Amino acid sequence: MRAMVVRQYGAPEVFEAREVPDPQPKAGEALIRVKAVGVNFADLLQRMGIYPGTPKPPFVPGLEIAGVVEKVMDGGKPAESEPLRVGEAIAAFTQFNAYAHWVAVPARQVYRLPAGMPFDDAAAIPVNYLTAYHSMFAMGNLQPGDRILVHGAAGGVGIAAVQLAKARGLLVFGTAGPAKQEYLRKIGVDHAIDYEKSDFVEVVRKFAPDGIEMVMDPIGGKSFSRSYKCLGATGRLVVYGLSAAAGPGGKRSLARGLSALAQTPRFHPLKLMSANISVIGVNLGRMQTRGPLLRAELDEIFRLYAAGKIKPVIGKTFPLAEAAAAHTYIQERKNIGKVILTVK
Predict the structure, then answer these.
(1) I want to staple 92 with a disulfide (CB 3.0 to 4.6 A). Which of 46, 64, 110, 291 is the partner?
(2) Phi, psi (5° rounding) for residue 237?
(3) What's the pTM?
(4) What is the dihedral of CA 221, 227, 232, 236, to 10 degrees?
(5) pLDDT 10s digits, 208-238
(6) Distance between CA 184 and CA 152 in Å, rounded?
(7) Residues 6+ apart with CB under 8 A from 8
(8) What is the largest CA-CA distance in the chain?
């Protein structure tokens, strides 16, 4: 089969289209014919070699797909559901190996799609919307009227968080670059913040002197400390990335990574207790053993989708063979919403 292989860690140019052996599903797995691949910032970190658990090159990156079930092995039953059937439209977590025409995945990581959901939408939902939903409502227990700051509010997870927040009656602060400010206001961000011109801590404290209930921060480094300053009593800081460690040229930089780590604050438990603040870490890759929980959350996300309350924003699609161009597009901060690779 055809796959996009990272031949060595580095910039987007390290991608190479190759013929690789067809995947051979094992017991409890399903073989999926891929129709669309969701491109996440984590994929860029995989390509650079700084994402936890990334294999040594050559390898095929990617975390989520949408497609059609082609074969089901014995034991191919999703958690809390009926066995999969050939021909069903699904979305799935892959834990690498997504940039390919075929993928074999454990059935517990496969989710049937609601009737009529396009494959592009399906590939844009699992990582982004589950990250946001799990952070905000499972770990964060946000309630109507609560206030949230979303960093990168025009990105994949950012837009998912904004849509879910508006569906639940939250007040939203959101950061993005100057070219995306009007878009933030269009999607319902109550306080759009241009991070190049404004200090987001000052903006938040201006409108919420007592501090807010949550900040979602995928940036890391000194941003964690500044996000913490936005919180009031019962506030939650959600950390789900470390993009500050990624160099602008698309290559891993030891100096940049060490700098981001050095600037990362240490949260003393007694200080957290005294301030009544929580720090929440979210990593969907470490939650695959919690199948029933993820399935229940995704069921709710699909329900909101069917009700028209949320809908993935597809910023741009690229053919699978143009994976390097897709990564460059995200790296240069051109994307609004999700970037998708289409497979034919």
Answers:
(1) 110
(2) -100, 115
(3) 0.93
(4) -70
(5) 999 999 999 999 999 999 999 999 999 999 9
(6) 10
(7) 14, 57, 58
(8) 59
